[in-house]
Amino acid sequence: MAETQKFEKVQPGGSLIVAWQARGKRCLVVGGGEVASGRVLALLNADAEVVVVSPAITNAELENRRELKEFIWIKAPYNDDHLTAEDNYNLVLSCLDDPEVSDQVWRRAVSLKIPVNVADVPAKCDFYFGSIYRDGPLQIMISTNGKAPGLARKIRKEITNIFEDKEAEEGEGESDSMITKAIDNVGKIRQAVRNVVKCDIKARMAFVSGICEKWSFKQISLLNDDSIADLIAHFPDIPKYEDLDSQTAEVPIHTLKLA
């Protein structure tokens, strides 16, 4: 019998949390109130193409976005002609106080095999909206699997406080977030390693992961194109930040294709 290895234990009953790329995808929101407004903002932040079906818009923020033409508004009560295979919707969100119409939207989406979320009805949701902490490219989602959204918001506030304290400690009051700069620079490092270093994916990932683990947020945020070039020249070794010397980089900066 093979020796039992200590792998992570399966925890059934969770949701598959992924960062779904909604850019350019057509999404339907049914409703014109406060819940719909929050859903529309989430979709617009993900660069989705948003269509709202509602006889009226009763939320000030949503009305403002309508005036700015940030989404398409179909001014009508929902009927199944608004949701057909020919419409090519990738996602359907029902944000209504009317259980009967919400059920109609749900049944239609299910029949078309389109992922659907019915606000405040977990049993009719293929996915949930968690509470999001956002700082530029950094997104942290807190989900209670549809059970306690109020607690998810409370946990998000705690995370916000942690990051704000970190910024105050290391960011020195700069206008751009130190964490955002660090994330952007790690993205540049990953691209540079892919373009310059000819090796397997495991070695590249180990190099980038090592930098993230051994260097502070502030050190990573202070990198520029020259120091990134110097860093790549040390591959596969991970130098100390203090040992970088961009003037002696062995890899010409024009070969890195950092953009």
Automatic annotation (TrEMBL):
> What GO biological process, any one, is recorded here?
siroheme biosynthetic process
Presence of keyword Glycosyltransferase = no
Q: Which residues form the signal peptide?
A: none
GO terms of molecular function:
ferrochelatase activity; precorrin-2 dehydrogenase activity
The Siroheme biosynthesis protein Met8 C-terminal domain covers: 179-236
Q: Which SUPFAM superfamilies match?
A: NAD(P)-binding Rossmann-fold domains, Siroheme synthase middle domains-like
Gene3D superfamilies in the cross-refs: NAD(P)-binding Rossmann-like Domain, Siroheme synthase, domain 2
Which Enzyme Commission number(s) are on file for it?
1.3.1.76
Q: What class of enzyme is it?
A: oxidoreductase
Which UniProt key words apply to this protein? NAD, Oxidoreductase, Porphyrin biosynthesis
Indicate yes or no for the key word Oxidoreductase.
yes
Give one Pfam family, short name only.
Sirohm_synth_M
Q: In which pathway does it act?
A: Porphyrin-containing compound metabolism; siroheme biosynthesis; sirohydrochlorin from precorrin-2: step 1/1
Residues annotated as coiled-coil are: none
Reaction(s) catalysed by this chain, per the record, are:
precorrin-2 + NAD(+) = sirohydrochlorin + NADH + 2 H(+)
Where does the record place the Siroheme synthase central domain? 135-161
**InterPro entries given in the database record:** Met8-like, Met8_C, NAD(P)-bd_dom_sf, Sirohaem_synthase_central, Sirohaem_synthase_N
Note the NCBIfam families from the entry. cysG_Nterm
Spell out the protein name for this chain.
precorrin-2 dehydrogenase
Protein's organism:
Yarrowia lipolytica (strain CLIB 122 / E 150) (Yeast)
